[in-house]
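## retry 2 of 3
previous attempt timed out at serialization; input unchanged, resubmitting
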Amino acid sequence: MAKRQKLSKQPAKIKGDGRGLKSHGSLDADIIIANAPDPVFVSDLEGKIVQANDAVSQLLGFRQDEVLEQSLSRFITPDETTRVHGGTA
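## retry succeeded, writing output
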């Protein structure tokens, strides 16, 4: 059974946000990603992994801190990278 995540009444903090607040939609996305049964990652436009759930770590065999900030090209083929970034394959 999946763990139920506690929600605090205080706004969540986010790294790099000048106001220190996270939008409600962004918080919802974080909860969905964290609790997804399948591997889910988020990358920036350069292909750097900025968020990944535990299933990604289990699939790749790396700790989460080893996955974050890495290039997608370290884990997937160039063809897969193109498809992830919306190019044609």
